[in-house]
Structures are given as C-alpha cells and as structure tokens.
Amino acid sequence: EGVTFNKLVNGTYAFRRDFKKSLWIEVFLVEGINSDIDNVRRIAALVGSLKPDKIHLNTSVRPPSEETATAVSEERMIELASPFDMCPNVIIPKFNSISPGDELNEVDILEILRRRPCTAVQIAEAFDMHMNEVAKYISRLLYKKLIYSDDRGIGAYYSAVKSKEELVLR
Prior knowledge:
Layout: H1 5-18, E1 24-28, H2 37-49, E2 54-58, H3 74-80, E3 90-91, H4 106-115, H5 120-127, H6 131-143, E4 147-151, E5 156-160, H7 164-169
Parallel strand pairs: 1-2, 2-3
Antiparallel strand pairs: 4-5
Helix pairs in contact: 5-6
C-alpha cells in the first residue's frame, strides 16, 4: 500500500503531538498545480491545525528539474500568504537574493554558479553591481565556455559547466 496522503497527515499529527520543540513547516507552491486560492486555503487549514511555530512559503526560485514546475510570482506569493495568518511567523522567500560577496571577478561569479544557477539580476544584487558590469562578466564566461545559459520560460539562469562531458551535451 505504501505511503498515502492520509498516512502522511496522521503521522504528522502524531509527530506534532509528541514533539514539544519548535516546529517549522515548509509549503511549496507551484504555479498551476497548487497555487489557486482554494487549494491554498485547504493547505493552510491543514498546516494551521498542526500549530506550527513557523511556516515557510516557498516556490521554485531556480530552474526546476521538471519544466512544468513553474514558479509562483513574488506578488502572488504575498497574496497567497494571507490564508496562513493563523501562524504568527509566515516566511516568504526573498526573490533574487544571494548572500553578498566581497570583491567581484570572474572567479567569484563562477564560484556562485558552481553552487547554484543564478540570473544576471541575482549576480548583480549579490555583488552590488550594475547590470552592464554583470553582462560583461557573463559574456566573458560564456565565451570561455565556463558557464551556460538555461531558459525555461522563467528567464535566463546561468550555471557553471561542471565537466567536459557536460560541455559536449550542451
């Protein structure tokens, strides 16, 4: 029979009953799958009944492995947070945010792109630099075939090439 939704929910209730420490629950929203207000209200009611200390609302902010997994916009995420108002601490992701770096050069950008795909805007914000400067670095790294661009309808994301085999596949 395996794990059913009801078994998962009942197990989570049992866990919450026995777990007396801080409980954080992440709710992952995908545009067109579970992002309509009726679904979100049902999710919020279920999550609220668990009395979590924090709720993290999340969506895909990097290119997903499945092309049908589309991100919910930042504006929509803010709207969809309202059914979760039973929890005093609802966290919505900051879009286009990366931890700030120090000095910028191609190596620094490449290091970020080795860790995760980023947009040009995310790179600009990470290093507090003008988009023209970011475009210059991206162009150089693309020309050197150290990075590649991936556009899945949510904008161009850049990633570091990890191996020669990956370069051939691109």
